Automatic annotation (TrEMBL):
Domain PafC HTH: residue ranges: 7-126
Pfam families: HTH_PafC, WCX, WYL
Domain WYL residue range list: 149-216
Residue ranges of every copy of the WCX domain listed in the record: 243-314
Domain of life of the source: Bacteria
Sequence segments annotated as region (Disordered): 315-352
Lineage: Bacteria, Bacillati, Actinomycetota, Actinomycetes, Micrococcales
Protein name as annotated: Transcriptional regulator
The species this protein was found in: Cellulomonas carbonis T26
Length: 352
């Protein structure tokens, strides 16, 4: 899966702290420690080499020994203070208090006693250290769904009971199923019930605002997550179809917010993403939303089908007398175009 900005930022900060404590680490060893490829380590070093403190003169930048790097060893010569732990200011502490309270509100009912104790203890310590500023923060998560459905789901989570629900999916298909609820999660501005679906025989996420009815059953929950519940809305699998999309730079959020497998920057400022799709209805909605920024879609059948969906939508809004004119504007239904050059930009390190 492609590296996202938050993940890379954490790795960059961790790399500086690690190299500050371990002078002279082989590129391969550093890659193994952070779980990335040696090539990615070199890219990270390039990024850090151009980072530093305000002013950004040579003495303000993080620096490495170029001769060591040429021999395959990363040696940090100037960390600019990034190797030391930072003290939280009042604003940062209040943000953490708000985040922990939101976490308690969202998943507190689904945590086991030990996890709940850790969350509560951490919040109490941080609240005490923050003082009066923490008293100004009150977090209550708004869930866009039938209040009765939400209340029943939370009751089932507290009691560890199976539920029966009536659900409408993204394709407007109605189904009824028994599920073992795990937690209520929030993502992409929506709230979901994460559960084990006995009909599908696997983990599923149900949008709460699409649950028409939810009823608590007498049976206890029998399937529990093998790991801590993951609030990710979608986790791609090899059996899901792969789709490649060329986009303009304005749609960069796609690479940051969606679980893409690969991201490639193009020379014209656009980029190419490859992602796996389990729902064609979701893909159609995504491409229609991105239409002004979509340059090419592969496979071509996807582009043609989405173009036809856009044409049908336009026709549904067009009730005028010129509806059937042959020269009326319609979406381009052409297949995918050839992508731009895929060569990665040259490295800056050689110029130093």
């Amino acid at each position: 899966m492609a590296d996202r900005t938050p993940e890379r930022l954490l790795r960059l900060l961790g790399m500086v702290a690690y190299l500050d404590r371990h002078p002279g680490v082989a590129v391969e060893d550093l890659a193994a420690h952070f779980g990335v490829s040696p090539g990615q380590v070199l890219k990270d070093v390039d990024t850090l080499w151009m980072s530093g403190t305000p002013g950004y003169w040579p003495d303000d930048l993080i620096d490495f020994d170029a001769a060591s790097l040429e021999s395959g060893v990363v040696r940090l010569t100037q960390s600019r203070g990034m190797g030391r732990a930072l003290r939280l200011g009042t604003r940062e502490a209040v943000v953490l208090v708000a985040a922990l309270r939101a976490l308690r509100e969202a998943v507190g009912d689904a945590l086991d006693p030990v996890e709940r104790e850790v969350l509560t203890g951490t919040l109490d310590v941080l609240t005490a250290a923050t003082g009066e500023a923490a008293a100004t923060v009150d977090v209550q998560l708004a869930v866009e769904a039938d209040p009765q459905v939400v209340a029943t789901a939370r009751s089932a989570l507290r009691d560890g009971r199976r539920v029966h629900l009536r659900y409408v999916d993204a394709s407007d298909a109605l189904s009824e199923r028994d599920v073992d609820p795990w937690q209520i999660v929030t993502g992409d501005e929506r709230s979901y019930l994460q559960a084990w679906c006995h009909s599908a025989g696997g983990e599923r996420l149900f949008r709460l605002d699409r649950i028409l009815d939810l009823r608590v059953l007498d049976e206890p929950v029998t399937r529990r997550p093998a790991r801590a519940p993951d609030p990710t809305v979608f986790r791609p699998a090899p059996e899901h179809a792969a789709v490649t999309i060329d986009l303009s730079g304005r749609a960069r959020w796609v690479a940051e917010q969606l679980p893409v497998e690969e991201t490639l920057d193009l020379d014209d400022g656009g980029f190419r993403v490859t992602l796996r799709v389990a729902s064609r209805a979701w893909l159609d909605q995504l491409l229609l939303r991105l239409a002004p920024d979509v340059r090419a879609v592969r496979p071509g059948s996807v582009a043609a089908e989405v173009a036809e969906a856009a044409r049908r939508a336009l026709l549904a809004y067009d009730d005028g007398p010129d509806r059937d004119r042959p020269d009326r504007d319609e979406p381009d239904a052409a297949g995918p175009r050839a992508g731009g050059p895929e060569d990665e930009a040259g490295r800056r390190r050689a110029a130093r």
